[in-house]
Amino acid sequence: MSRHTELYSLIYQTLKKTISSQIPRPKSANLDILLDKLYKNDPNSILSLEEGIINDLGNNLELLNEALTLSRCCYFLSLTESETRSLQEAEMMFDIIQILESRPDFIIENTLSTLESNIIRDIAKSENLQQLTQWYKYLLKIENTFPAYKVSHGIMTVELKVFPLVLDQIERGNCDINDLLRIVYELSKDPRFNLENLKIITVDHGLTRIGELETQEKYWEISKTLGVIRENNIVESMKASYDYYDRKYKALSSEDDENGTIFALKKEVVRDKVREFINVKVNRAIAWKNADENVFVIKRSGTINLKGRHEVSVFQYSIKGEEEVRFDAEEKRAEKIKTKHDNVLGFVGMFRCKLNNVENLFVVTEPIGKKNSLNHIIKNKHDFDAKQLIRETCAGLAYLESSGVSHRKVNPYNIFFIDGVFRLSFGTSFLYIRENTNEEKFLAPEIKDILANPHEKKPLSFVRADIYSFGATIFYAITEKFYENEMNLNDIKDNKVKMILASALDKKPSARLLFKELYEIIRDMD
């Protein structure tokens, strides 16, 4: 029996009583059968039931109206088992609940709880702020109509959903800034919401699109109401006009304040956006990358030395489980690289902070682009010098090896061709198999064993594992195939390259030549 059995039974008894007193038995025989099915929870019979009611009660409009209302109750309550519901259907069900509320045997809390559960499901599926706002207003309607019932779970779901929807619409660039401000303003009036970060993001985004606002005065009025503009806020000083903001802050610049040096690394800097939204408690740089590819970085005093004009690339990763524990060790490992090398991408630093209660890792490097990656070159069949790739990649890895550092993530996604030189990225190596499923194809067998059996402790040389990944990457670059076993080496025509790969791809780690040894062989390769 479903959770609506009591209500089905109530409707059945009401219909039965109504129909039995008004309709000759022979004519109601088919209707009795349908009612019996209804009592046994056969929702498929509900529409047929309605047709039977019309046939049997067609001459009595008052009874017909009551009977149809009750049958439609059954129909819409059966929809609560469905995975889809439109706002129109929810409104109709709301009306039905109000009709049934006066009946003494109707347990309204159960039905309202069911309705709220379905609304929560649909809130989770909302694709834009407009849909979300409609459901929010509907929740308020339930509370206002039935004061004893609180839609606390529904409100919580709205709060969880509104943040990613705002960010998504800002990133896609498909939001009307006036609607966005109004929606956030309306939601912020509900004391049950904690939307401080969202308000800051919305107001700051409005600043970058101030020319699209209906009136600037309305924007500042909303901003003040949201409580975002405060004394000495950098936004306050910009409110004269968008042109002033664009002229003063679009150029790459830096300025000092009590928290260190603030750098505008790409387009513009809004101090409170970084400080308030990220809310980081670390002694390293802080960065945020928004939809316009602007990167905001605050340098905490004495940590990172950036002077003048700088562009960087910022990569963001979620940190979970043991990765969080390993962060400090990884950071110390990265700091061993004290000098620059032509074949290693400049590593600025890495730092972590919490976003939406999830620990995140930010890695800052010299600027790169996806189109520069070796993987992009291979996939798009661009020409490249295979021996240059071997020589320069090995040189970079030999440098890391001599610094006492293993890369741990050598693959085509982390090698870049910049200004005619192959360069390794560095700094995210302990995050295995995070974004590209094919990364597993380049891991050494012993690393795969660790990933498959994380609780087994085995001695491991990450440098030797890097050597295998180097070999697998070179093999893939030359053949466009993933390396599987030694038989694949027959696809390599150059005997010297084949010898290098045979050593690098040996299943036994100790049999693999170190990078400094490989480089001696590779250095003068024509």
From TrEMBL:
InterPro entries: Kinase-like_dom_sf, Prot_kinase_dom, Ser_Thr_protein_kinase. Residues 220-526 form the Protein kinase domain. This is Protein kinase domain-containing protein. It comes from the Eukaryota. GO terms for molecular function: ATP binding; protein kinase activity.
